[in-house]
Amino acid sequence: RRTVPIFATTYNLHGRPYCGENLEEWLRLPRDSIPDIVAIAFQEIVDLNVGQVLAASNANRLVWERTVMELLNIQLRQRGHGSEYVLIRSDQLVGVSLMIVTHNTVLPRMRNISSIKHKTGLWGMAGNKGAVAVSFDLDDSSFCIINSHLASGTTNVAERNDDFYNIYTNTRFMRNKGIDDHNYVLWLGDLNYRVDLPNPIVRDLVWKGDLDGLLRYDQLKAQAKQGRIFRDYQEGDIMFPPTYKYDTGTNNYDTSDKQRVPSWTDRILFRGQGLKLCAYYRDELTFSDHKPVSAVFEAQ
């Protein structure tokens, strides 16, 4: 019986290419244990314009891959770990991209690695929204990691639920293996669920630090409680302010004409006996109009 440390993170890039920004704080590995598995989920890795939806470029993804791998391996060398991180799977559906990384020493213990892309935009015809999922076996346990970008818009709760259900029921791997047929599941992404309160009230509660008052009106928690989404899934306690939407390059919530309501759109949920959440937090990068959200797990 082994303990498998896992680091997972999700970040909506707002279509911005990497231009040398300092990402060390965001991609810092846990101090007490070096993760065997690193999962990095991006949304809007390209601009979601018509041209990209029809034929998305992978140029941004390749730059992010090189940058992420370099940062992870620098940390391994600094800690004298004696192994190297390798990218075992990276896939992209328009703006949704998922990287799965492991040590070269762990790789021989892995098998049956496969990935699936599933469109949910325009009734399943367009990839501007959807999911990328990766399945693999590590020793005697099976893992599924999903990155999804669900329907946007404050009032589009039913559309988001439909997107979730569509991905949940139609994602099939080898031998018709479904998401919940795995021992452990991590579901990351820009799930786009909002806070159902008027903008001035939300901003006032954020300013006062009353996160519990806000979370009572969180659409994802409300829909899950009603059994419409994420049955049997867990999420860590949210101890950080809403992660969306910021003026790019600042820590100011949206000052544009649209004045979007601050919300926890970026989430990480999980299921599986023997999967322990050790940390759940956000980082303070101002690169995008979202903040990245990360989680540290231990799987038995």
UniProtKB/TrEMBL annotation:
Enzyme Commission code: 3.1.3.36
Top-level class of the enzyme under EC nomenclature: hydrolase
Keywords: Hydrolase
Protein name as it appears in the record: Inositol-1,4,5-trisphosphate 5-phosphatase 1
Phylogenetic placement of the source organism: Eukaryota, Fungi, Fungi incertae sedis, Zoopagomycota, Kickxellomycotina
